[in-house]
Amino acid sequence: MNPPATPYKNLPWAENASRTYKCGRVIVGMGSGHEPRLDFYNCTSSNLPAYLIFVVLKITLGDDWVEKLEKIHRQRPGLWKTEVCLNQEGGEEYRLYTLKQDKPVCSSRISIANSRIHSFSIWAEDAAPLLKKVIENYPPVFLPKLKNYRYTYFFPGYLPFYGLDKASTNLEETMSRQREETRKITADENSLQTGASRAGDSSGLMETIEALKCLEVFMA
Q1: pTM of this prediction?
Q2: Exposed, middle or buried by CB within 10 Å (0-12, 13-18, 19+), for 55?
Q3: Rounded to whole angstroms, what are the CA distances from 5 to 71, 73, 75, 148?
Q4: For residues 147 and 220, is the Cβ–Cβ distance under 8 A?
């Protein structure tokens, strides 16, 4: 049984890790039912720094967000495989391939450019494997005090979340466009013949997070 839906939450953020103050707002929510989706939307022109996706999901989906997404992922049927490639603009695309009517398709994707994550709408069952790859390449700062971290990030709206008027945003339009662009990606017919994982296999997200925490302590 899948976890209940997570209503859309509107979260402001700010950070100076690039030595230049940046701020913005994101909207995050996850549906319920047979095929739920995880939606992430940048409300402003400043896209969220990719290394902050871990803490944003923790705030908006709850402390157990990793376990939630891993559980949904483990219930998926069939083969799956993740891939990181460059798009025509030089940004990174994190793609997950699976089978549909016995043919490989790109099921979900997350795009990152200049170390900032774009809005995305992905199947919830694809979230854990894709986020595992993102977090590997853009590790969160788990213990800023331990690392004597010079830069800061700030979420002024932990609780209550800022009010959300979806009509005042391009949320639904952007999510629909992201889904359509993903559907247009042509998967190589041999993409799942090597390196694919099976239904029930771990995404590796939990293990990656624990390894990064240990490395952060070791390097402090």
Answers
A1: 0.90
A2: middle
A3: 14, 16, 17, 37
A4: yes
